[in-house]
Design brief:
Protein name: Dynamin N-terminal domain-containing protein
Helix content: 55-70%
Structural class: alpha/beta
CATH class of one domain: Alpha Beta
Mean pLDDT: 82
Oligomer: single chain
Low-confidence stretches: 204-212, 472-479
Number of strands: 9
Largest sheet: 9 strands, mixed
Shape: rod-shaped
Organism: Paraclostridium bifermentans
Number of helices: 16
CATH architecture of one domain: 3-Layer(aba) Sandwich
Strand order of the largest sheet: 4-3-5-2-6-1-7-8-9
Distance between the termini: 27 Å
């Protein structure tokens, strides 16, 4: 299958865009907030990619080929010869201002634009509407002519007064329809495969105002322009002035000429002695600096040749030379310029998005380091506090200390110290959380270890031991030793249980703090980016997009 350069470029860019869109789609499945940097990045990439997607559709669309020139020079007939059919009706009304647009379509229809409203019709129905409107114009002109002749016949008026009279009659009686554009959708290939053809109204200065502005507007919109001249009227001052002014102001200054001159109706001068040769020489002398090419054709002979399948007549019309000129001067050049324009657009968009992604990745990597730093701090602080309180617990639960200072007093002091240190650590770790939300409540950690049942047991056993010690004088040595040793073992056993419970309590508190800080850090990370648990996959998707953008950045335009 053959693909033009435009089609190849379109498919390549479309494939890149699809990769980007797939990655964006997968990224959007992930968890993030609208206020996050991730959401803002995705939204900006989507916005730019959607603009590019719309822009590259032009690579699949035909170019715009405008047919311009004064009225009654055979523009419509020339268009018919280019599409090899007599589809476009010749406009007999020179002062109608309407665009006829021809585009290839599998479905034959007509769109008629009146003011700001567009209506679609069956093609033949549309033709009937146009013919009816133009008939109204003709009838109104007949009325004007009759009234003018009566006034002229019965009044002795100067030339100036006659002109003013005619002008007044036209303003009052001339029918003005509001159709500004007609789109013809026809099932024809050839030139319409590559171009949408636009038949412009006749640019006669005595009929239209602001002709220069209209011409410039067409020129700016067109990928190519065919300027039609009449072989019998080469030196028309109006057409010559329009050509010179357009070129001087808008073509030569831009350094790009996209106008072909088609000298039409050569069949009407071909048989006269040397007329065709003289016209060719005169045209080249007058306009050689204004057009990229000058082609002499007979659109009438071309149409007649296509209808009768007369190849000799088609060759004589020279219409194929005009087609070749359109291909070489418009199609190829326009394709190059369009591809260059799209590549430049991609380069600019790619560099813009790469800059956003680079900033995003830089911030993300910095915050990933901070997130990991919080986890390292948690481990360090917990281990440090755990080691400190393990020693404190061992000292506090030393039996001699318990006996000397009292069990409850020792545990209450430990409780107060542990509560202070746990809250200090909790506060310190909260300050290190990435983008900590000030609305997050910092709950005070309450420590309650002075009511453990082992405390009461130990107190009771120590009291029992003291009582036994006081009764030594009344007990036998054997009995005293046996009861005393049993009591000591019981105290040691309860002390060990207390120590174990205190260590478990410490572990639970530290684990709770660790879990809380990790949860807050994860929530904070999600608020700023996305779910920390899938960050590797997220970065892979961002890098996939970045790689496409880097390729776009290599385009030289």
């Amino acid at each position: 299958m053959y693909y033009s350069n435009r089609e190849k470029v379109y498919m390549e860019i479309h494939s890149d865009i699809q990769i980007i869109k797939d990655n964006l789609k997968n990224m959007k499945i992930q968890s993030f907030l609208e206020s996050s940097k991730t959401y803002k990045l995705i939204a900006e990439i989507e916005k730019e990619i959607n603009t590019i997607s719309k822009s590259i559709i032009e690579l699949k669309e035909p170019f715009l080929l405008f047919v311009m020139g004064p009225g009654k020079y055979g523009k419509s007939t020339l268009i018919n010869s280019l599409i090899k059919d007599n589809k476009l009706k010749t406009k007999d009304i020179p002062n109608t201002w309407r665009l006829d647009i021809l585009t290839s379509s599998n479905y034959k229809k007509m769109d008629i634009v009146s003011g700001y409203e567009t209506k679609s019709y069956d093609y033949n129905e549309g033709l009937s509407i146009l013919e009816a409107e133009e008939e109204k114009v003709k009838n109104s002109k007949k009325v004007i002519k009759d009234k003018f002749e009566k006034i002229k016949k019965h009044n002795d008026l100067s030339i100036y007064d006659l002109k003013e009279c005619k002008k007044s009659l036209e303003e009052k009686y001339l029918y003005k329809y509001d159709i500004v554009e007609v789109k013809h959708y026809i099932n024809k290939s050839g030139v319409l495969n590559d171009f949408i053809i636009v038949d412009t109204p006749g640019l006669n200065q005595n009929l239209l105002k602001n002709t220069k502005e209209r011409m410039v507007d067409y020129y700016k919109r067109a990928d190519g322009i065919i300027w039609v001249l009449d072989a019998k009227n080469i030196v028309s001052k109006s057409s010559n002035d329009m050509i010179v002014e357009l070129n001087e102001n808008y073509i030569l200054s831009d350094g790009y000429n996209n106008i072909i001159c088609a000298v039409n109706k050569v069949d009407e001068i071909r048989n006269k002695d040397n007329d065709l040769s003289k016209v060719k020489e005169e045209v080249k002398n007058l306009y050689k600096n204004y057009f990229v090419d000058i082609v002499f054709v007979s659109s009438k002979e071309a149409i007649d040749g296509y209808i009768s399948n007369d190849k000799k007549l088609i060759n004589l019309s020279n219409i194929e030379e005009l087609r070749n000129s359109i291909d070489s001067n418009f199609k190829i050049n326009s394709e190059k310029m369009q591809i260059k324009s799209k590549h430049m657009h991609l380069k600019i968009s790619g560099e813009y998005l790469k800059k956003l992604i680079n900033i995003y990745k830089r911030d993300l990597y910095e915050d990933l380091y901070k997130f990991d730093e919080v986890k390292r701090s948690i481990n360090y602080e917990i281990e440090k506090l755990k080691s400190y309180f393990e020693k404190k617990i061992n000292i506090c639960t030393n039996i001699e200390n318990l006996k000397t200072n009292g069990v409850y007093t020792q545990l209450k002091d430990l409780e107060n110290l542990l509560e202070i240190e746990l809250n200090n650590m909790y506060l310190s770790l909260n300050k290190k959380i990435l983008c900590c939300d000030e609305t997050d409540e910092l709950n005070h950690i309450n420590v309650n270890i002075s009511k453990l049942k082992e405390i009461l047991n130990i107190e009771y056993l120590i009291k029992e031991e003291n009582n036994q010690y006081k009764e030594i004088a009344f007990l036998s040595k054997l009995k005293k030793t046996k009861n005393y040793e049993t009591n000591v073992y019981l105290i040691i056993d309860e002390r060990n249980k207390l120590r174990s419970n205190l260590l478990n309590y410490l572990d639970n508190q530290l684990n709770s703090i660790e879990k809380d800080i990790i949860n807050k850090s994860t929530k904070a990370f999600r608020r700023k980016y996305t779910d920390y648990m899938i960050i590797k996959e997220h970065l892979r998707q961002v890098n996939d997009i970045d790689n496409i953008l880097k390729k776009w950045g290599d385009y030289v335009g």
